[in-house]
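[step 3/7] fold_predict: job queued, chain A
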Amino acid sequence: MGSEDRVSQVSRDSQTSQDRGLLQAVLEALPAGALLVSPADEVLAASRSFARMFDLEGRADLSRGAPVQPVVPLVRAWCTAGHTGPGPGEILTLRPVHLHRVAEIPLTDGRVVRRQVEPLHHDGVYLGALWFFGDVTERKRREHDLERDNVALTELARQRNAFTAAASHELRTPLTTVISFGELLTDPAFGALTAEQRSFVDAIRRNGERMQRVISDLLFTTRMRAVGPELEIGDVDVPGMLRDAVLESLCTAGPGAPPPVFTVLDCAPGPALRGDRHRLQHVLGNLLENAAKFTPPDGRITVTARPRGGHWEIEVADTGIGIPESSREEIFSGFVRASNARTGGYPGTGLGLSIARELVGLHGGTLTAGGEEGEGAVFLIRLPFEGPGDSP
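[step 4/7] structure written:
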C-alpha cells in the first residue's frame, strides 16, 4: 500500500471514529435510554442510560457489532409476569421494518417504561431501528392520583347535590306552612292586630320569603349541576325585559321592609335578542337584588343597556360597598362571598352571582364584575344578538 493510500485509509478511519463518537454523544444526550440496532440485529450504539435502566453494565456486551440476542433475556427478566402487552424481549427480537410502535411496560421493581421504536430508512433501504426506553413512572403515578381524585370529587359532588336537594325539599314544606299561617294572622276575621303585632307578622313573612328564595336557588343550582337548565329560546325585547325587571325589584318590598333603593333605567333602542327571557330576567333580578342589598337607602342603582358590536351590553351599577379587587372573580363561585360582605353582616348564600354567570354563559355571553371598593360595584353583561352558539 502506497503512502497516499495509507493516508487516505487513516483519514477514513479518523472520520469513521468521529462519526461514531458523534452518534454516541447524540444517544447520550437523549432524555431516554436508547439502543440503535442494525438490520442484522447487531448493536450499533447504546446509551449508558439504557444500560443503567435494565442493570446491563458488566452483564451484557453493548459494544458496536455485538449481537442483540443475548441482551433479550436480561431485559425480559425486568418485565412483570402479568403484563399482556409486548414485553422488552419481544420488542428486541421483532424487526420493525415499517411500523412505529409504542408501549408502556410495567417492570418488576414498580417502574413503568415507555418503549418507542423508530424504523430507520434511507432511499427505501432499511438501515435498522432506534429503540427508546423512557421512565414514565412518576407521570403514571400522577395520572393515577388524578384519576382517583376525580372519582372521589365526582362522588362528593353527587352526595352534595343529593343532600342539597333533600334538605331543600324538607325545608320547603314547613316553611310554606309558616308563611301561610303568618298571612292568616293578618286576616281581619281573626281580629285586629296592634302595630307591634303586625310588625312581627311582617318580619315572619319577609324572612320566610327570603328563605324560600334561598331554597329555590339551592334547588336551581342542584338542577344546573345535574342536567343543566333547559333554555326556551325566542326573541327577547331587551328594553321591555329590563323595565319589567326593574319594576319587579322595586315592588318586592312589603310592609315593614326598608324602602327600595332609587333606581334609574337608561336603555337605548336596539335589535331583539335571541334568548330565554325568563332566565335572563332571573339574572337581572339577582343583580338588582344584590345591588339593593349592599347599597344604603340614600344610594342609587343605575341600569344602562346599549347594543354594541353584535352584542347587547347591560350594566348594573350601584353606590354600595363595592367589591375588593381580589374577590371579583371568586364571587362567581357557588357559596363564595366577598370579604366585605361577610364582615359587614349582609345576609346571603353566595349563590345568586354563580347562577347568574352560569345562565349568561349558556346564552354565549359573559358576566364580569368591576367598580371600586367603598364606592360601588359594577356588573357588565355582554350577550350576542344571535344567542347561544355564538362566541361572546
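[step 5/7] annotate
Residues 39 and 377 are 73 Å apart (CA to CA).
Residues 84-89 have pLDDT under 50 and may be disordered.
exit 0
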